[in-house]
Design a protein that fits this description.
Strand content: 35-45%
CATH topology: Beta-galactosidase, Chain A, domain 5
Strand order of the largest sheet: 12-13-14-15-30-24-23-18-21
Distance between the termini: 21 Å
CATH class: Mainly Beta
Number of strands: 30
Number of helices: 2
Radius of gyration: 19 Å
Largest sheet: 9 strands, antiparallel
Length: 350
Amino acid sequence: MNLISDSSFKGMHNGKPTALYTLKNKNGLIAQITNYGATIVGIYIPDRNGILTDIVQGFDTLEEYMTGNSPYMGVICGRCANRIAKGKFTLLDKTYTLAVNNGPNHLHGGITGFSKMVWDVVHAAESAVQMQYLSMDGEEGYPGALQVKITYTLTDSNELRLDYLATTDKSTVVNLASHSYFNLAGEGTGSIYEQELMINGAFYTPTDETSVPTGEIRSVKGTPMDFTVPKKIGKDIDSDNEQLKFGAGYDHNWVLRHRTGSLGLAAVAKDPQSGRVMEIYTTQPGVQLYTANWIDGEKGKGGKKYGRRWAFCLETQHFADAVNKPHFPSTILNPGEEYRHSCIHRFLVQ
């Protein structure tokens, strides 16, 4: 097992220092986080033989995160994760125009977004790191100065916990999400088709051809979107299904069963060969499954080239384009309110 080197992340960007923080728990699990993009660089968990392996795709150096064609690997997406249709929304009778950076739509906060910012580290310890970022009024076209704080904690219960907090001085839109690419067999080891997934939701939000939700909330029953019972990720991914053709695979949001704001099970992923299991819990109403459909040949850690569908993302968040869909759970944050969001990745071996 080779950990990413701390020295490869030390530097300055836009006048702020960058670093890599290595978190450890009493069981030997390791998580590595950089304050550039508040990015998860590596998560090392054991297989059934006790061998630690990094299960998230990424890069060996800060420079690669900054200059490479990184498809949001491990970053925090914001101010609004996922898509906003045509880069426009109306709030308090004023229309705001954002960057269009994904076909005709706005994606993951825009051209720069939170994923390319250096976050200020507030506290760092052996098992936790807390960082914050102040997004100024008008940044990427969003209204209001937004103060964001995220805490990563690696617990002795083998959980990597993400706790988000945000406040604003003007009504705005907020939807923060972590965008790690997981392969439970080990990053860069090949296809995820044989890995199993359960999503704790009986409904999903179908999209148009540009991957923006239509507004419908549709049952998964009888469709390739049904993960209510664990199945191999590759089982239905190439089915003759309009939704899968739109996304070139899975790139959809599932409506979770629990009440928004309360911590509930979102998904369970398992690699039968290694025995690694990841359970994800969240306070958010949805989880976006993305199966790395548009990655092909991206150079990653150790010089490996990541292939198409060699990883999956499970992004706990509000539904895409919620600001333009009043019947979706709201992404609007007003002054005097707090945006709070918790997500737990719990690791097991079976």
